[in-house]
């Protein structure tokens, strides 16, 4: 949609009936599960439907054409790999995570945070998947990150920057120095 929102609805009526039908009913589970898990489920269903459509059209190709088609398909990450930030089975590379858009007046790096400074009591498993800003004292700027994994006992976290780079960080030090702001 133009306002950058989306919704899941029934397939359009103009879809030829001979095409494989997408899985209906994924909206039923949406209310009973975390949004991230539901999006992963939507991605799996979308991947399987896209592959079904590819197989449907591939029957019209010869062996060489089918080989080219599936080589092109396998050169791209799946929607599931993108949504869950998993390693690509085909390339072995980590797929860039989909970050939420920043406000136009807010660049990825800034001398001031826009979130609330993280406190010791914020270091819980619920940090996983949260977006935050991490302060780099060397250049006096805050950088957008997503917290990928958290070990509350060890006060460690794995983060990924908007650029796609990963880093393991010491949350005890970051909280003590006031170097992370939660969004």
Automatic annotation (TrEMBL):
Alphabetical list of InterPro entries matching this protein: Alfin, Alfin_N
Listed GO biological process terms: regulation of DNA-templated transcription
Where does the record place the Alfin N-terminal domain? Answer: 2-84
Q: Which GO terms describe its cellular component?
A: nucleus
Give GO terms: molecular function aspect only: histone binding; transcription cis-regulatory region binding; transcription coregulator activity
Q: Which residues cross the membrane?
A: none
Task: Write one Pfam family the protein is assigned to.
Answer: Alfin
**Name by which UniProt lists this protein:** Alfin N-terminal domain-containing protein
Q: Tell me what organism the protein belongs to.
A: Dunaliella tertiolecta (Green alga)
């Amino acid at each position: 949609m133009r306002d950058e929102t989306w919704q899941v609805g029934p397939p359009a009526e103009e879809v030829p009936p001979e095409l494989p039908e997408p899985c209906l009913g994924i909206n039923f589970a949406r209310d009973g599960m975390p949004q991230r898990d539901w999006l992963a489920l939507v991605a799996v269903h979308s991947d399987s439907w896209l592959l079904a459509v590819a197989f449907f059209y591939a029957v019209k190709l010869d062996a060489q054409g089918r080989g080219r088609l599936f080589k092109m398909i396998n050169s791209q990450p799946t929607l599931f790999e993108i949504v869950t930030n998993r390693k690509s089975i085909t390339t072995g590379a980590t797929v860039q995570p989909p970050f939420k858009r920043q406000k136009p007046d807010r660049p990825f790096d800034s001398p001031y945070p826009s979130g609330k400074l993280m406190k010791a009591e914020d270091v819980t498993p619920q940090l996983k998947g949260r977006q935050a800003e991490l302060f780099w004292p060397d250049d006096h700027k805050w950088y957008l990150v997503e917290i990928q994994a958290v070990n509350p006992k060890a006060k460690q976290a794995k983060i990924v920057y908007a650029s796609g780079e990963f880093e393991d960080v010491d949350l005890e030090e970051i909280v003590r120095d006031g170097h992370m702001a939660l969004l």
